[in-house]
Amino acid sequence: MYNRAFLFNGIGSKPEKLLVNMPPELMDKYEFYLDSAFGRLGLSKDLEKNSSYDGRVAEWIISLICDRVVFEHYISKGIIPDIGAGYSSGIVSISGCFGCVPHEFAHDIIMMNRATMRCLDEQGEKLDMGIVIGFSYNDIEELISARFSADVLVIGSGNSKFHVMLSGRTEAVAEALDLCLREGALKVFSFGTGVAYHHPIMEKYSREYVDFCASTEYRAPDYPMLSIFDREIMTTGQQVMRENQLNVYTPIRWDLALKKLEELGVTEFFDVSPNGAVSKFSRVNRKCKIYTLEDV
Asked: What phi-psi label fits residue 30: left (phi over 0), alpha (psi between -120 and 50 degrees) or beta?
């Protein structure tokens, strides 16, 4: 039933890394969308001139704009998705690209992260996320389950057999990364963003974000979407709205989402990020292929 899936990346890639592979013929469209979005939102294109909260969300909105440019490029080439999935804030991105909400509203959702970050700062919460390369979900689960309670540390996302994201309190994340390195991880690093997305602790600090996600009517997606939380196929606007609400504080199993897509018949995966970010932490079986912008 499904053969081709579009995959939307989450936040994390710096603008300079996102744009390095953007071909010149797409840069004009990128600049147009950037000027429009930043002008409306009151953000400076000189990212260092934005306040701390604004600076972070500005980078994340750039990521959404890049996704839109690449998405529209694929469509113009006759590459049409049968289904799609979004990783973390990629849920917001796919919501705009698949027509559930206007792109402006998707940007406004990202802007609401400022309220969440402000709330965390006011409460003195010290949170972080970190990446472990070289261990699977089960490996990490075995390592941390006896040493950390879920109150301080969870697996925020199982990305593939070799790539896992941890999320929780800063000290716990740092300790867990050190532990994984001692146990043979190939590489570990922390994000240092002051937030712990996909940890349940975020729920009580993201009420404004969650409420805002439901402040408009969502259209049914132009193409079906796979939930990265329960692996159900979403075909209604209400389902997509709920996906956006769950996103901040609910752990992800990206690896299982890709496996589910394969079970549904998908063999062609198209990474919508301009720098192939999704393909770098995702794995599909040998009968499938992940295509990037460079391939197209």
From this structure: alpha
